[in-house]
Amino acid sequence: MLSLHFIMLKIVAIMLSGMAVGFLMRKRRLCVVPHLVTVLIWLLLFLLGVEVGSNPQVINGITSLGLEALWLSVAGLAGTIAFSWALWRWVSHRKGGDTQ
């Protein structure tokens, strides 16, 4: 448990130090920073893929994970459509207009 707190403390310290550097350099034009952030995000995504791909438990369960992801996506989309339709009906009914 102590190591988890130490890791979180390191993450917060790194974030705060980045904020301090950003505050101190706020008047400079840092044109390279957005490009650097993009490249670092690509690198992190690649390394995440390497980590996931090297985990045999994830690879062996990819079918069930894919089906679960598909089910969650379809259910989320259906819920969004149903709620949007109900909200549209409620708003148009409150205005007194009939949209059908």
Commentary on this structure:
This protein has 100 residues and is mainly alpha-helical. 83% of the residues lie in helices and 0% in strands. The protein is built from four helices and no strands. The chain has helices at residues 2-24, 33-53, 56-60, 62-95.
Summarize the SSE layout with pairings.
Blueprint: H1 2-24, H2 33-53, H3 56-60, H4 62-95
Structural class: mainly alpha
Q: What sequence of helices (H) and strands (E) makes up the elements?
A: HHHH
Largest sheet: none
Q: Name the overall outline.
A: extended
Give the percentage of residues in beta strands: under 5%
Helical proportion?
over 70%
Intertermini distance:
59 Å
Mean pLDDT value: 90
Question: Keywords, please?
Answer:
single chain; about 100 residues; mainly alpha; about 85% helix; extended
Produce a short descriptive summary.
With 100 residues, this protein is mainly α. It contains four helices and no strands.
